Structures are given as C-alpha cells and as structure tokens.
Amino acid sequence: MVPSQTHVMLKWQEHLNSSWAAEDSVQTATRHGAAALYAKLVYNKEVVGLAQPVQDLMGPRLPDFQYESSAEEEKEEYLSALLHSQRCLAHRMLARTPFALSLHHRLVILQRVFYALHSKYHDRFRAPLPPQPSSSNAEGGALESVSEPWPTGSSRSKSGTDVLIEMGVRTGLSLLFALLRQSWQRGRLENPPDVALCNEVLATASSVLAALPPLSLANENKIPTVGLDCLTQVGDFLKKTAVSGSGADRAGRRLSLELLLSLALQRGSLRFLLEWVEVALAASASSTTSETVGVGYELIHQTLQQMRQHT
C-alpha cells in the first residue's frame, strides 16, 4: 500500500540505478502507473515516511493582556501566529488530497529516473575541468585557481599514494594467484591437503561475495580504477582456472566457475554473463568424461531467481 503522505525522506540506492534508468517515465502520466512506481520506491526503502511535526497543530497560546501599552502588539503577534497555524493546517490537509498525492508521486519518480540516468550515463563521460591559469590582481599578487576534484577513473596524474596502493594490490594478487597455482600443481603430485587449502580460499571468497547486497558492483562509476583492475585480474585468473589443464582439480574448477558466476551477477551486465557462459562451455569441452566440471542446479536456479527479482 502506498503511504498517503508527502513528508518523506529520499534515499537513492546506487545499485538500483540501472533498473530505474530503464523505466518508462511515461507511466507517470496515469495515476495508477505513478502509484505503482512509487510503491516500488517504498518497497526498496528509497522513500521513507517521516513523522510530521505537531507544533503547528497546537496553535499559539493566548497571551495575558496585562499591560495596556503592549496590548496592541500582543494582539498583532497572536493574530499572526494564529494565521500561520491555520495556513500550516490547511497545507497539511491539502497535501493529503488525491491530486496532491498523485503529483507528489510523479515528481519523486521523475526525480529518481533523472538521478539514475545522470549517474549511469553522464557521470561516465564527464570530462575534467581544465586547470585555470593563475591571473594577477591589481596589486600584482597571484590568485590561486581552485579546481574541482577529479572524478573516479579520470586520466589525471597519479599521486605517490595511489601508485603505492596500486602496486601493493597488483603485487598481492599476483603472488596469491602464483601460490594457488603452485599449490595445485604440488598437491596433485604429492600433497593432497594443499589442494583442499586452495579450494578453501575460493570457497571463502565465494561466501564473502554472496554476503554482499545484490548488484553491489553494478555501478562502475563508483568503483575506483584500482578496483576495476582487480576485478579484471581476478576474472582472468578464474577463467584460466576453470579450464582443464590449469592444474586445479575438479572441485577447484567448479568453485572457480561458481565464483565467476557470482561476480557476473554482482556486476549486473549481460556482457559478463555471456563471458561466463563462454567459459563454462570451454571448461566442459576441455574436460574428460571422468572429470566433467559443472555448476550445481541449485546455484543456477538461485541465480535465475535473483535476476528475475532485480530486473
């Protein structure tokens, strides 16, 4: 049921921008369509109702006319406060009429769609402002130009801290992947517990990813460049691991496929889902009959349910 109030708080959720960008704003032309879209906002808790203040409904207190010198001023103040209280009461009652509620629904929905379109398309192609040359004032002093902060993923010159963070992340991931490959190779030859340890690392990463909110990685504009590079590096490692001949055992290849599917689902793009299908077909084609790698039906069914729920 759509709440019949206009005193609300708006909290847009970034992972729903793609869904709202695909909505047809023409639905707001009808009262039924606007109410349905507004109910979607309420269901996703992007619109939260607030308690209305009660001070305006109490009305002004009648002053004590003790002094004749200030009686006229007190009367004027009392009448002004009384008119203000009546105006607030009338505004509150008019805001509950069907026309006012429908207008409120349409404005909030259009605001949500505009925010989704702006966040999905315009932020991605926003060009950084060119630095303004310093000019001199009449006294010969230099005026420093204040520029806007650079957006995420821009082609600005990286600072020393950014370079150190990127180097540490890249080095750490490369070391982790090398250790996993080495442990798989050694485990299949002489030490089976090493294989179980590698698979436990993949299972832990899969459980951490499953605990995230849906479509947490869908808005790439909010992910820094280092994060996007890490996602690409992890995806490449999982693709190579899922294919036969990578050194991983059957359980490791299956966990790699499941983790790659979870990443594609969190990124919310058809491109990543098609890439996963291609990797799954390649893994099935490269496997022998006794070592066929497949993802469980339960995970596929759960993935399809999540896609239907958030489409």
From TrEMBL:
InterPro entries: Signaling_Regulatory_Domain (IPR051625)
Keywords tagged on the record: Repeat
Region (Disordered): 128-158
Protein name: Hect domain and RLD 7
Top-rank lineage group of the source organism: Eukaryota
